[in-house]
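Saturday, quiet lab. Running sequence design on the C-alpha cells for the scaffold JK sent over.
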C-alpha cells in the first residue's frame, strides 16, 4: 500500500490528463485496474501498491516528493522551505508581474521573480507565458533588477506604440498593476 498524500494523488491525475492518457490505458501500462487508479486519483492512495505508484511516477514524470505543491498554489519565494524550485521571470511586458519604470526617457520593466515547479509549472501563473529561467540574451543566471548584470540586456523587452509618452504609460500601468494585485 502506498501512503502518498492526497495532494500527490491529485497531481498524478493532473499529470495523466496533461499527457492525454485515459485511465484504462495508464492502468494497463502500470499494471493495475482502472477502478483502483480512479480511486487513487480521487485521493485514496492506499488503493495502489507502492510499486505501482513508483511506475506511475515514472510514466507521468511526477516526482514522489511530498512537499511539491500542486500547480497554481505555489508558495512565494522565501516561504518555500524544502521544495525544490526553479526561479524564472515572465518575459511578457504586458504581464502584471512586470513593473514598468522610466530611466532617462527609456522604459524598463522590473520582473518579479516567479517560482516554477520542476514538474510542469514553467508557465507564468498570471498570463500563461513560458517563464525564462536565465538571461534571454546571454544565458547568465538571473539577478535582481530589470537588466542582466552579465551582459546588460533588459530582461523584458518593452513593446509599446511609437510616440507614446513612456512616463505617463509607466505611471498608468503601475497604478493598474497595483489594482490588479489588490484583487488577487
Ligand atoms: Zn506573465
Ligand atoms: Zn545577459
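Result came back. Writing it out in full:
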Amino acid at each position: 500500500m502506498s501512503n502518498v498524500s492526497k495532494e500527490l494523488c491529485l497531481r498524478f491525475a493532473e499529470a495523466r490528463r496533461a499527457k492525454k492518457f485515459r485511465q484504462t490505458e495508464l492502468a494497463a501500462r502500470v499494471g493495475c485496474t482502472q477502478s483502483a487508479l480512479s480511486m487513487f486519483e480521487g485521493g485514496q492512495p492506499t488503493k495502489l501498491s507502492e510499486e505501482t505508484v513508483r511506475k506511475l511516477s515514472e510514466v507521468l514524470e511526477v516526482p514522489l516528493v511530498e512537499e511539491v505543491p500542486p500547480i497554481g498554489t505555489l508558495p512565494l519565494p522565501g516561504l518555500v522551505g524544502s521544495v525544490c524550485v526553479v526561479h524564472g521571470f515572465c518575459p511578457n511586458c504586458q504581464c502584471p508581474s512586470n513593473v514598468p519604470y522610466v530611466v532617462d526617457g527609456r522604459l524598463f520593466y522590473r520582473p518579479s521573480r516567479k517560482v516554477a515547479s520542476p514538474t510542469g509549472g514553467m508557465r507564468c501563473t498570471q498570463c500563461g507565458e513560458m517563464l525564462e529561467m536565465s538571461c534571454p540574451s546571454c544565458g547568465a543566471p538571473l539577478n535582481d533588477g530589470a537588466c542582466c548584470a552579465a551582459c546588460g540586456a533588459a530582461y523584458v523587452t518593452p513593446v509599446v506604440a511609437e510616440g507614446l509618452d513612456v512616463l505617463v504609460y509607466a505611471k498608468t500601468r503601475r497604478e493598474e498593476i497595483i489594482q490588479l494585485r489588490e484583487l488577487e
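Notes for JK: Residues 73 and 125 are 9 Å apart (CA to CA). Residues 166-183 form the longest helix (18 residues). Ask whether to fix the surface positions before the next round.
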